[in-house]
Design brief:
- By secondary structure, the chain is of the alpha/beta class.
- It has a domain of 119 residues: Rossmann fold (3-Layer(aba) Sandwich).
- 47% of the residues lie in helices and 12% in strands.
- The chain contains 11 helices and 8 strands.
- A 4-stranded parallel beta sheet has the order 2-1-3-4, with helices on both faces.
- Helix 9 packs parallel to helix 10.
- The longest helix is centred in the first third of the chain and has 28 residues.
- It binds zinc ion.
């Protein structure tokens, strides 16, 4: 009996040893990378190709402003060699997750080096337009985290990801550089195409409403004006006075379309549409990619869908 137990224990120990060795082999073949949310996940796949094993924490159509990490997330972070986050206070839940998972890898902040917009900055440029605007979209102060909605910024994101991957896996650095360069050419081509598309929209027709203020960088790049009852984060609900201020503004100004979003609470937008007869321009993908059965399953598809949807809704 004692011998049997000993043999069993010995066998289990041997199995653990074999499994341990196997998982080390796997780890040395592919770099363990964790992305905080779906848009970064797509950019990392483009640069990392076959050399990485990617885990994305906040999945397609998920809201990264408000997220509760799972035990599986903590496991993924614990073993990650590279973690890529957006930064600019987007992932407020991340510091606690890194601490509890005892993260020991390399962390890359994808937005490092971009031209940061401050919350409300874009609106202040149009200060002469209205006095009521101050009531709208100023729930928080600080940097606007939604920097991926500028293609110019995403080129910087891609270079930061490439540099991070090259540091943790120098053997494949040339390939990461090559992948990043190829992807940046695609971004440039798309940027030119979308710029031409938006040129068709008269400058007086460029005021739109979205549930939350996710498009400040897109507005900056494409000379658009967005208003959002919910403000910069989905964390705070739009108050009745926010919605009332927007309704008042729609009635006074020439607001051309209202959009719904994949991650936000669209109820107040529906209320605005009911009370003002404004046109619903379609669905925008703001802080997350769509699933594969929807039109925004990659970053390139997402930004093209968003800009095209806006331009089509605003073209007279
Ligand atoms: Zn957002």
């Amino acid at each position: 009996m004692a011998l049997t137990l000993f043999k069993k224990a010995h066998l289990l120990a041997s199995m653990a040893l074999i499994l341990g060795v196997n998982s080390n082999v796997v780890a040395s073949e592919k770099v363990d990378v964790v992305a905080s949310f779906s848009i970064l996940g797509d950019l990392i796949s483009e640069v990392g190709g076959d050399h990485i094993k990617l885990t994305t924490l906040v999945k397609a159509n998920g809201d990264a402003h408000v997220y509760n990490p799972t035990p599986q997330d903590a496991q993924a972070v614990k073993h990650a060699q590279l973690l890529v986050v957006n930064g600019l206070s987007f992932e407020g839940w991340m510091p606690r997750l890194l601490e509890s998972a005892q993260f020991k890898g390399k962390k890359v902040t994808a937005s490092n080096g971009i031209n940061v917009l401050r919350i409300g900055e874009h609106e202040e440029e149009h200060e002469e337009n209205t006095d009521e605007k101050e009531e709208v979209g100023h729930h928080h102060e600080g940097p606007d985290p939604h920097a991926w909605n500028s293609i110019a910024n995403v080129k910087i994101y891609v270079n930061n990801i490439q540099s991070g991957l090259s540091q943790v896996d120098p053997d494949n650095s040339q390939e990461y550089k090559q992948n990043a360069d190829i992807y940046i050419v695609k971004l440039n081509t798309l940027e030119n195409k979308l710029r031409k598309k938006m040129e068709m929209v008269p400058l007086t027709q460029r005021k739109v409403i979205t549930p939350h203020d996710a498009f400040g960088y897109l507005a900056h790049d494409f000379d658009l004006e967005f208003m959002a009852p919910q403000g910069i984060s989905t964390e705070s609900e739009a108050s009745a006075s926010d919605v009332a201020a927007i309704i008042k503004q729609i009635r006074r100004d020439n607001i051309n379309a209202v959009f719904i979003e994949n991650i936000a609470d669209n109820r107040m937008v529906e209320q605005i549409v009911r009370e003002t007869n404004t046109k619903v321009g379609g669905k925008l993908y703001s802080d997350a990619l769509s699933g594969s059965n929807e039109p925004a399953s990659t970053y390139l598809k997402m930004i093209e869908h968003n800009v095209t949807t806006i331009a089509n809704a605003l073209t007279p």
